[in-house]
Design brief:
Elements lengths: L4 E6 L19 H13 L4 E4 L8 H10 L5 E6 L6 H14 L5 E4 L16 H20 L3 E4 L4 E5 L16 E4 L3 H10 L2 E4 L4 H17 L8 E11 L2 H14 L3 H5 L9 H12 L2 E2 L3 E2 L1 H4 L9 E5 H14 L1 E7 L3 H11 L1 H6 L1
Parallel strand pairs: 1-2, 1-13, 2-3, 3-4, 4-7, 7-8, 8-9, 9-12, 9-13
Antiparallel strand pairs: 5-6, 10-11, 11-12
Helix pairs in contact: 1-12, 3-4, 4-5, 5-6
Length: 356
């Protein structure tokens, strides 16, 4: 099994207060974002996922700035094929990877995101995922071949060459390609072209079933790359004791019923198959697998904020270890206030995970 990767989350929001974060005017200034990235380094994380969306500051620009102001921090930069042509993105990411000595990670996002605002006309699900598959295929070729000529349904290139190459090391030919999605179309793309399939916080049984399905799909689609790896993106609410953690979690959910608070949790995942799976968990029970809290999704929590892992440091560490034993090796964790919790979780939970 691959070595485990532990990443945090930096919200990269246009508005302050994301998911209960502290409201401050300079929340998205370079100094504030750098403070968060350096805290990620200080408390033992490998890097952080940067939030993305058309109305947010440009994620690639933010990731580049944070890489320049840190020494070990790995930015997991989210990018959408609708924003980029693969040749442009391959060149930009290879340049950043070269300048940061191989610290670049990429998260490819396919969900619909205000396409009319930036002129994207590929909006139906089947076409979006087929384009993503072609985007990833071309991206890999550009990073690993000297010259690429390609004529496909969405992209055409003739003798395309990069001026800067990604850093190549043992077991790494290019930046790791993370990918999410729970629909049939998404899973086929992941099985064929992604490096890491990301899951949101589902039950152990659901994750086990999805991993088995993706392994079978990899063989069915004729995967040509190293075996697909798996990651978990989830909110964790952890304290010294289980009672403390549940008190915090339930108090927070109670406040989510207030309109102003609820608004800070909402993101446009309503059409996502994965989002519908998470919300459906709340119809089964408020708590599943002892630590999986489904109530946030019933009150507007979306994405990685739909379900939370709640408990003592040891309880949540044991839960994450169960996911690891199922095959998950990449963990993207977070809670708010982000700057406070990156220390709390880095100091108290992360050592337990690494000890496992």
């Amino acid at each position: 099994m691959t070595e485990n990767t532990y990443l945090w989350y930096i919200p990269n929001q246009a508005r302050p207060g994301h998911r209960g974060d502290i409201v401050r005017e300079d929340h998205n200034s370079l100094d504030t974002l750098t403070e968060q990235a350096r805290a990620v380094e200080r408390w033992g994380w490998d890097g952080a996922l940067l939030g993305t969306g058309w109305t947010r500051p440009d994620t690639f620009t933010v990731g580049t700035a944070l890489a320049a102001r840190t020494t070990r921090f790995q930015p997991l930069i989210a990018a959408r094929p609708g924003y980029w042509h693969p040749a442009n993105f391959a060149a930009a990411a290879a340049t950043l990877d070269h300048l940061s000595s191989g610290r670049t990670l990429i998260n490819i996002v396919t969900g619909v995101d205000s396409p009319a605002a930036y002129g994207d006309t590929v909006t139906d699900r089947a076409s979006r995922y087929e384009r993503t598959r072609e985007f990833l295929h071309v991206l890999r070729r550009l990073w690993t071949e000297e010259s690429v000529t390609h004529s496909g349904q969405y992209y055409s290139l003739t003798d395309a060459r990069l001026g800067a190459r990604p850093v190549s090391a043992e077991g790494r030919d290019h930046p790791t390609l993370y990918f999410g999605g729970a629909s049939n179309e998404a899973e086929r793309v992941a099985a064929a072209e992604a490096d890491v399939q990301l899951f949101w916080g589902e039950t152990y049984q659901a994750i086990e079933e999805r991993i088995a399905r993706l392994v079978a799909l990899s063989a069915e689609v004729g995967r040509e790359h190293a075996p697909l790896e798996f990651g978990l993106r989830v909110t964790v609410v952890v304290r010294e004791t289980s009672g403390e953690a549940w008190s915090v979690a339930r108090s927070r959910v109670a406040k989510m019923q207030e309109e102003e608070i609820a608004e800070t949790w909402k993101e446009d995942h309503s059409r996502s198959v994965g989002q519908r799976r998470l919300v459906a968990l709340g119809e089964e029970s408020e708590v599943l697998d002892d630590v999986l809290y489904t109530a946030p999704g019933q009150l507007g929590g979306q994405g990685a904020g739909t379900t939370w892992l709640v408990g003592s440091y040891r309880e949540v560490a044991d839960a994450l270890e169960r996911y690891r034993l199922l095959g998950v090796s990449h963990f993207i964790l977070s809670d708010t206030p982000y700057l406070q919790e990156v220390e709390n979780i880095g100091r108290n939970l992360l050592p337990l995970l690494k000890r496992h």
